[in-house]
Design brief:
It is built from 8 helices and 21 strands. It is an alpha+beta fold. Strands 7-8-9-3-10-11 form a 6-stranded mixed beta sheet, sandwiched between helices.
Amino acid sequence: MSVLVKGITKAFKPGTNIISDLTGEFRGGEISVLLGPSGCGKTTTLRCIAGLETPTDGEITIDGRVVYSSRQAVSLPPEKRDIGMVFQSYAIWPHMTVHENVMLPLRAHGVPRDRARARVDDTLKLVGLDGLGERNATQLSGGQQQRVAIARCLVHHPKVILLDEPLSNLDASLRISMRGELRDLQRRIDATMIFVTHDQEEAMSIADEIFLFHAGQIEQHDRPQNLYMKPRTRYVAEFLGKANLIPSKIRNQGDAAELVSARTGETIAKGRFDTSNWTADEGIGMVRPEAWRLDAGSSPSLSGRVGTVTFLGDRIELQVETPIGAQRVVVLSPRRIAVGDAVTLSVSAEHVHMIGGT
């Protein structure tokens, strides 16, 4: 039950597009995460799929059925699209019980009361709210209210579930636990979910595929690990985690190639490098902070001096001043490192990713 958007454009006023000619496929039975900063178009895209916003142009299909088409003059209302939606604010009615809140979509669809009650009970069990049906919604914790919103979304068995930053109102520890619960729930019901967030860690932990938005376009989409390790552009590299971006050149070719700094000529790594993203003689070598090895005795290596040390419990983050510029380095070992210490850095060729541009 995939969702396909083709050439979607949305402008709230003439000449100002929030999304522009956007095309993408969100695969059935997976969690697709729309990730990006505020104003990049991810929530507008979700609302266009839901039918809460009408695109200026393009086409949207859900499970092969056209729900919006500017060319065919089709625009189905939300209740005709067979979708469920969980909002950032939960939108729980405070004067109703849990059972009554979850019952609302079934009443709107005209489901007989006995069948509706049984389905609500089954859905409350599914989301871990069994036995709380008669409790007033205002008596619930934030996590429980979020489960009510999810249950209300699931109770009429929608083809597609849309979630607009559903965890952002929870505290940090509860947000982490709810990620796992949502992931587990999606697997149990084999649902198609489209999930909007601006939180990189949340996206990486929950997604089957991440669609990274930038200025109303999908900059890149891929499995989380591929997107993190093999970004196609500088924007993707810098948005997802931290990255050392080194203007570089390649000497020689094949297994004996050398990656050197384009500014200083310093050798950074040796081996085989994939330069398929490059369109000129030089580009950017990306090294993630955790890929640098500290004082490993490898060749080639860069001499450096520790400029800053940040202790973060499970890791230490360093800024090391080197001939090719300051490098961010993550150290997982509990060794003592102080500002001013002399260190050497090395990285293997397999941990350097090549990006086009300068």
